[in-house]
Amino acid sequence: xxxxxxxxxxxxxxxxxxxxxxxxxxxxxxxxxxxxxxxxxxxxxxxxxxxxxxxxxxxxxxxxxxxxxxxxxxxxxxxxxxxxxxxxxxxxxxxxxxxxxxxxxxxxxxxxxxxxxxxxxxxxxxxxxxxxxxxxxxxxxxxxxxxxxxxxxxxxxxxxxxxxxxxxxxxxxxxxxxxxxxxxxxxxxxxxxxxxxxxxxxxx
Amino acid sequence: xxxxxxxxxxxxxxxxxxxxxxxxxxxxxxxxxxxxxxxxxxxxxxxxxxxxxxxxxxxxxxxxxxxxxxxxxxxxxxxxxxxxxxxxxxxxxxxxxxxxxxxxxxxxxxxxxxxxxxxxxxxxxxxxxxxxxxxxxxxxxxxxxxxxxxxxxxxxxxxxxxxxxxxxxxxxxxxxxxxxxxxxxxxxxxxxxxxxxxxxxxxxxxxxxxxxxxxxxxxxxxxxxxxxxxxxxxxxxxxxxxxxxxxxxxxxxxxxxxxxxxxxxxxxxx
Lengths: 204, 270
Hints:
The complex is a heterodimer.
Chain A: E1 3-5, H1 7-19, E2 25-32, E3 46-56, H2 62-78, E4 81-89, H3 100-112, E5 117-121, E6 135-141, E7 144-148, H4 158-170, H5 180-185, H6 194-203
Parallel strand pairs in A: 1-3, 4-5
Antiparallel strand pairs in A: 2-3, 2-4, 5-6, 6-7
Helix pairs in contact in A: 1-4, 1-6
Chain B: H1 16-20, H2 24-37, H3 42-56, H4 63-77, H5 81-94, H6 99-111, H7 115-128, H8 133-145, H9 149-162, H10 167-179, H11 183-196, H12 201-214, H13 217-233, H14 238-251, H15 259-269
Helix pairs in contact in B: 2-3, 3-4, 4-5, 4-6, 5-6, 6-7, 6-8, 7-8, 8-9, 9-10, 10-11, 11-12, 12-13, 12-14, 13-14, 13-15
């Protein structure tokens, strides 16, 4: 089942990447929990309505990741969401392959959501104009993570996503983006990013 | 990763001094604070620094040279090669034979991904002065930028054999090991840092995280002890608090852990 990204999810992913250009960053993709269980679910895309930026810098340590997964899982249950995927932007510009950290976290997510995907950001194509989608989506097939072609269909509305992301990058909104690391530094920082979400909504 | 674009600011955009109602002295002091904190807020440094240099260079006195250096490095981070070159040229004029400026020349080449040329500059510095730590560290950074983590680790280990007191290097090495998932060796580096900085709660807390990640009964106990220690040093360290909580939870799943040990550690922290 392929995933689809809303403007808000795509935009916050890129803002997180842009906020820490010298670090690796990662985060979780959130989808709405569907009430009906379709037996023949193939072909119906999973819509990732939001993302939660997690860490920047050192991604390979376990304790804070576990804290984040636990807290975000609880938040999801309260809001009828589910953790549906994982995104990561590597430290180096030309490196956009999922590494061990990505695979481990995605495996954890897959335990609760079998169609979890890994979304890698292609740093080398990150521009302010966002003329093309710069994510690479990986699905789990036969024990391996395989790269799938990203089309306009991978987005709920690509032209809206492009317009909003570009506007927020130009306006340097990433300075106000809060990730889980920022939250751990000061608990008042809200990793749900209500301010950014409102900016996205205003631009829709 | 640096920004792939270099868009020009809008013509009518207000200057920093207008936007924030600050004078040149406040801008200069802000830059000094950022230097002392070693913060990597390159976009802000470029905004403030560029205006300071272009409008108030004559008032800065001897500070202007260190500000040129700071702004140059920030400009490289922001893909502003125009600004970086301007700063570099001023520094070259003032300090023609300086190793410090040569290193900046090398850094600009690194930013342009001309690694071979950059290495030549650093090798020239090292021939002249084999104890120049900055040039050696830049060479290691090039290896890291090229994705040659294994070689970077080797070179950094050799460097540390000679320069055992270089804390920045120990920390860099611990990060490289963590990225390679070699948690044992990362822990060793953090142990070195904790020995020389026993009051630094951040090193304690990061050590505890590494131990937790390593897993296993002994490492979990150690991780709880060091999270507690971090909390003792700074009771606002939330990572240490969460880590202690997570570690205590996990230890309960190990049947052979004595409940008393768990209780002792937690009592120590509070």
